[in-house]
Amino acid sequence: MVKKNSCLTAILMACLCIVIAIGFSKIVMSNKTGAPQKEETSKHEDILTEEAANQPVPEKIVQLSTMAVVRKRIKGMNAKNIKRNLKHLTRITHVGGTPGEEELGTWIYNKWKKGGFDKVEQKGYDALLSYPSEKENERNKVEVVEMDEERDEYVTIFESQPETLDPTVKDENIMQAFIAYAKAGVVTGDLVYVNYCRVEDFVQLLYENVTVEGNIAICRYEKIYRGDKAKNAARFGAVGLILYTEPNFLAQVYGFPTYPDGIYLPDTGIQRGSIALENGDPQTPGYPASEGIYRTPEEDLELPTIPVQCISIRDARYLLMRMRGEPIEYPQWRGYLMNVTYRYGPGFVNSTEKVRLSVYNKNEVRKVYNIIGTIYGRSEPDRYILIGNHRDAWAYGAIDPSGATAIMMEIANVFGSLKKKMNWRPRRTIIFCSWAAEEFALIGSNEFVEDYARILTTRAVAYLNMDILVQGNFTIAASASPNLKEAMFEAAKLVPDPDGSDSTLYDIWKDRQFANRVYGLNLPPQVGPLGAGSDYASFVGQCGVSSMNAIYVPDPQSTFYSVYPLYHTVYETFHMVKNLVDPEFIYHRAFGQFYGYLLLILSNSKVLPLNCRDYAIDLATNFAQLNYTHGEVFNEQNIDLTSLTTVIDELTEATKQFHRRLNFIDTTDPLAVRIANDQLMMFERAFVDPVGLPGRPFTRNVIYAHSYQDRYTSAKFPGIVDTMFELINSETPDPKLWIIIRKQISTIIHAIRSAIYTIEPYHVTD
Asked: N- or C-end of the chain: fewer Cβ atoms within 10 A?
């Protein structure tokens, strides 16, 4: 009997192999799209066609073969499709809340509706947005005025339109350069140069006896978020703020070509942006901007309190060349504007000349739409892997954000067609998200998180963020929740080097990181902590959903800029990407494959690939750094860190024990798998405190959050670090700040204990 069954099984398996072989040849021929790539080897290289999938074969074999098809389709992503998507996405300007953004949203909606998704929604929110006045006599401007004669000598804010530089750009609906949410008003005063407008810069000015109060500040971009610059300027008494982009030193010295011939910013370029300090619609904090929700009157909102305007390099040079005072001694204060001797001021050499800053911004409520596309999971439809990118841009947004949207559309095309043509489903539900109005205050994603907070807290496994994906072609710069690092590495190992070598994307990422390249070390790729610069912020900050973000960056040793120079300008066009960044779109395709594999790994692995040990290791490292930096001061204040040290050690041991138990889990037992996956998914939720951080009730992750001094960067143990910053930089520190430090330490101890409870066994083990 056994022999007969064995023979029958052997015959069936032989027939299956023949069917698989025939299907394999057909699929290989039908998937030759995009540039040729080196074939990967796999122990599951057999491919199952639709016809073969309908045969009565064992489920395990069906799944192995089907997964080979999925991997093949991800590998075969088409660079030409991504290029075509980007060209469409950048043909018009699409500022949040304008017809351009809505038009692209409709295009995405229709694509996904036809693309095999189970459900596609347009989810609208009524958000308070900010725009410059459309009246010709109310254009934002910066003027040099002669107070004695009451006449304007020179009017700044000039920007060559892109069509004068790039004939491929035709759209004429370009909004004038402005800073969203800047207070409307007209102010006049002396000009003061304040470097990067950081708190420490104003402390330096106090030391130099330079008066900021009652004057207009001018500062350069970078180092910190522009909203924090405006906050600091108002805090130290400035009545207005002017922002400009500092040109790259190498471009100035060596005459590197500017747009459209090169990647560097021409003198007329102006970086737009927002200065909102809180995420989401300002009138409905903590709740979605939906019908029936109370809206705080605009006059009661804590919006920026001074007029702020962005200007060009050319106009900044004109203003700074007129400044009076002794030349600044400190090299870190001297910028790279040619023919400018940097001086603090206040005011100009001609003391009768003043600066008049006129801002005519208007706030108005507009409907914005997220586009949400869903493919339901086969086994765990109530567990979600979300992937998203915002849709709006300050102009054409070829890199920020449309390059990522072009890639996401190709990923959606791959997964949607697998479901539509093969009836394939992932184990868990995949949700694609096109966010609205991100540039204003992460509005689309934040309102979604507030709307679905209770569901996301209990069902969301991870959020994969796409934003400025390809701004170079050297290596990856990534930030993530520590427990996602292992899955990210695994995905990168599956992607061939886009330059055609035998290496993988993981090898490139690892070998080209600074420590390995310069010092010959062999460290794994570096993955930093998340700040609040993009749509992941609300997921990880409010709900504790493990999140990640990655960017393909240029070689920092040859470029020396942190953000690509054409960022948030009208020169960020399709021409720029096609001719200056990624002509063949091979790096876009590589990142599409990377995100596609990561999406597959997270949505289809039976046991979730979330590594709690990595989280514990990072937490212990961050605590050691905190203790090294502030431990001596804590001792002086009789602040005992013994309990915190102990609980971190306990967490480290608990994560080791938990992952040892995972090695012995019965993967054929659905309940056992579900219990383990819930523990893995809920682990980071333990670090979310419902009270929120000091002064930030809607930022609740007590281990990682954006810095209160710069929302672009991350702070580890943010409640402690931000409070210590205030203590260090205050002339007369408030003693109550030490109470906040003590409370934050106890909050962190409680959160870590909660994380330990989350991964404890559900039953007695031998």
From this structure: C
